[in-house]
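HUMAN: Mind making up another protein with tokenized structure?

ASSISTANT:
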Amino acid sequence: MPAVNEQKKNLKEEILRVAETMFCQYGYDATTFQKIADELHITKGSITYHFKNKHFIMGTLFNEYFALLRAHIDKYPDAYRDAYWRYSVMYIYAYRGIMASPRTRGLFYHKNQMSLWEITEVTTVENIYREIARDFHKEFTDEDLRITAYLDLGARRRMYREYLTDSSFLPIDRYCYYHVYHMGLLARLDEATIARDIKEAFAFADLHTPPTVPILCAQS
């Protein structure tokens, strides 16, 4: 049984790595389970055993990326300010990388991907605000956290539409700023704390080069 489980684990990892390469090479829509299966010489059923559809593959790849960003930031404990600061740095890194290429934007902001995240990532976003609240000794009910997550996810979609409409009006670092500023407001932090943490988050992001991952290395 352990050997079988290890084989399944290895296949799942192989699927992720091949899909990652294909997303960068072909884009979101042109990457299919059939192409991944052909590359690995397996059946499509072997892929659906691990991933219901390619949207879940993309979600897994970005979850890996955010975990990598957090680990990178946490290598500098002396710089740590609080959970809101940490998430601010993570999103600055992430959005700078995601927005760097139209193809990468197309992966992260594909309409199907965005719709999926607004359903599946509610708990993830709730946990972000739960962690920030805990750091600042604030009380959020389960209802508070759920509605806060909805407001956060809805704002992300609208901000992206505005960025596409006129990126000169909303250049990437302003995009980052407004995202994390909105996060601070939703977390019920005071303006002074928000301003301080955002300033220090940008300073950290400018000073420390983030780790790179293949999914963000596609060129337009």
